[in-house]
Design a protein that fits this description.
There is one protein chain. The protein is of the alpha/beta class. Helix content is 21%, strand content 27%. A 7-stranded mixed sheet has the order 4-5-6-7-9-8-10, covered by helices on one side. It has a 3-stranded parallel sheet with strand order 1-2-3, with helices on one face.
Length: 260
């Protein structure tokens, strides 16, 4: 990652949740901040803003601890459990990222003792209303949604997430969101369904073999990550494995920039 970020003059990094295994962190001084973050991503090219969301394993700890950490560590960008952020891409073009908190939508978590209280305390209706309003009022050239759980996936461990298909995906289609990035399934995938392209990039640790699903363009179970270059009219995505090898690349056209 450090080499890839240096070669691309990386301006920011996005972490799509499950930031700490197996049960999140308890405080902003938890030892895992050193063992799983500060002491791992040490390349100077990675000393950039990290936009971060919560995953289900983070809900097994104390999610608020990650927001506490953000208040004193400026490169850990998590001002709330869901939020948006605008970044420039050209002199006139901007991208707005919409970071959502998907775990509270997953119904089975409401009965899991180790995370139930944190899950049921969250208002998913309020989050859906926020996302609908934020997407409708955004004037950014690119609107990109980031969530931990997949919407559609050929992952062998999890696969499609029905609750997000029902409650989040219609908003992506409604507001012309071209791409959705997620993790949760421990693999690398590119899927196109309808007007949205879904990138699964959950291969930062252990991996499992995915399979094809409707709309699959690429799928592989190997440790790796995705490097994204964003221009006014297109997004270029490189899928890179743990050795630095390029596994796959693709471009996504921006229908808004093209006037479609």
């Amino acid at each position: 990652m450090g080499l890839a970020a240096a070669a691309r003059k990386c301006r920011l990094i996005i972490s799509i949740g499950d930031n700490f295994y197996d049960k999140g962190v308890q405080t902003a001084a938890d030892s895992q901040w050193k063992s799983s973050f500060e002491g791992i991503y040490t390349a100077s090219s990675l000393a950039v803003p990290w936009y971060v969301i919560l995953g289900n394993h983070d809900y097994k700890g104390r999610p608020e601890a990650q927001l506490d950490y953000a208040r004193t560590h400026p490169n850990w960008k998590m001002p709330a459990r869901y939020f948006s952020a605008v970044e420039p891409i050209t002199e006139t073009g901007k991208v707005e990222f919409f970071f959502i908190d998907t775990s509270p939508f997953v119904e089975e978590y409401q009965t899991k003792e180790e995370m139930r209280d944190e899950i049921v305390s969250q208002d998913t209706n309020a989050q859906v209303a926020w996302l609908d309003q934020a997407l409708s009022t955004s004037i950014a050239t690119w609107k990109i949604v980031i969530g931990h759980h997949p919407i559609f996936s050929g992952g062998s461990e999890h696969g499609d997430q029905p609750e997000l298909i029902q409650r989040i995906n219609p908003l992506l289609e409604k507001h012309g969101v071209p791409v959705y990035f997620n993790g949760h399934d421990h693999d690398l995938q590119d899927i196109v369904r309808g007007s949205v392209e879904y990138f699964n990039t959950g291969a930062g640790s252990k991996v499992q073999p995915p399979g094809p699903t409707e709309g699959s363009r690429f799928y592989k179970g190997t440790p790796g990550f995705m490097a994204v270059s964003l221009g006014f009219e297109k997004m270029h995505v490189d899928v890179i494995d743990y050795t630095g090898a390029l596994l796959y690349q693709t471009d996504v056209k921006n229908r808004v920039a093209a006037g479609a």
